[in-house]
Amino acid sequence: MRRVFVGLGSNLGDRAGYLRAAVRALCRGPGLEVVAVSPVYETDPVEVEGEQPAYLNCVVELECGLGPLELLRYCQGVEAALGRERKGEKAPRTLDLDVLLFGEERLEHPELTVPHPGVGRAFNLRCLADLDPGLYIPGRGVVSGLLGGADLEGIRALGEVLEPC
Ligand SMILES: Nc1ncnc2c1ncn2[C@@H]1O[C@H](COP(=O)(O)OP(=O)(O)OP(=O)(O)O)[C@@H](O)[C@H]1O
Ligand SMILES: Nc1nc2c(c(=O)[nH]1)N=C(CO)CN2
C-alpha cells in the first residue's frame, strides 16, 4: 500500500457537488481507502489565460493498492463518469483529479508525472499542510517549509470539510 494524495478541482457548475461526488467515487475505488480529506478552499485560478471562475480545491489522502497508472486511469474514469468537459488545456472544468504524490516515488511516464508538476501551487500546499505539515515532497522539500514561502492570497477557506466516506 502506498500513501497517495489526489488533488481535486472544479470551477464549473455545482463545484462542491462535483468534489463531493469525486470523494465518494474514490471511497468506492477498488484497492483504494480514503484516509482523510482536507478542508475545501475557494481559489483564484492560477496559470490560466483570460478570465475564469474561481475554483474549489481540496486534497484527498488515500491508502492505495493500485499501481500509479492504474490510479491515474481510475481518476480519469471518475472525471469522465462525472461528465468532465474537456475544452482544452487549463480550460474551466467541472472536475479535475491530479495524482499529486504517490508515496515518495518520482515517475516520468508519457501519461503520468509524479510528483504532479503543479504540486507546489499554493492551494495544493495549503491542503497538503492541513493533512500533514511534515509531508515530504520528493525533489522539493517538506510541505510546511514550502508553504512558508508561498503566496496565499487568493485562497479562501470555506469552512467546509467533506465527509471522508
Ligand atoms: N500526476 C498526474 N495526474 C494527473 N494527470 C497527469 C499527471 N501527470 C501527467 N498527467 C497527464 O496530464 C494530462 C492532461 O491532464 P489535464 O487535462 O487534467 O491537464 P490540465 O488540468 O489542463 O493541467 P494540469 O496538469 O496543470 O492540471 C492527462 O491526460 C494525464 O495523462
Ligand atoms: N486555483 C486553481 N487554479 C488552477 C487549477 C486549480 O485546480 N485551481 N487547475 C488548473 C489546471 O488543472 C489551472 N489552474
Concise overview:
One of its GO terms (biological process) is tetrahydrofolate biosynthetic process. With 165 residues, the chain is an alpha+beta fold. The protein is built from 4 helices and 10 strands, in the order E-H-E-E-E-H-E-E-E-H-E-E-H-E.
Describe this structure in words.
The protein is an alpha+beta fold and 165 residues long. It has a single domain (2-161), classed as 7,8-Dihydro-6-hydroxymethylpterin-pyrophosphokinase HPPK (Alpha-Beta Plaits), CATH 3.30.70.560. Helix content is 27%, strand content 33%. The strands form 3 sheets. Strands 1, 2, 3, 4, 5 and 10 form a 6-stranded antiparallel sheet that branches. A two-stranded antiparallel sheet has the order 6-7. A two-stranded antiparallel sheet has the order 8-9. The longest helix is centred in the N-terminal third of the chain and has 14 residues, at 15-28. The protein is globular and about 40 Å long. 2-amino-6-hydroxymethyl-7,8-dihydro-3H-pteridin-4-one (PH2) binds next to β4. Its EC number is 2.7.6.3. GO terms for molecular function: 2-amino-4-hydroxy-6-hydroxymethyldihydropteridine diphosphokinase activity; ATP binding; kinase activity. Pfam families: HPPK.
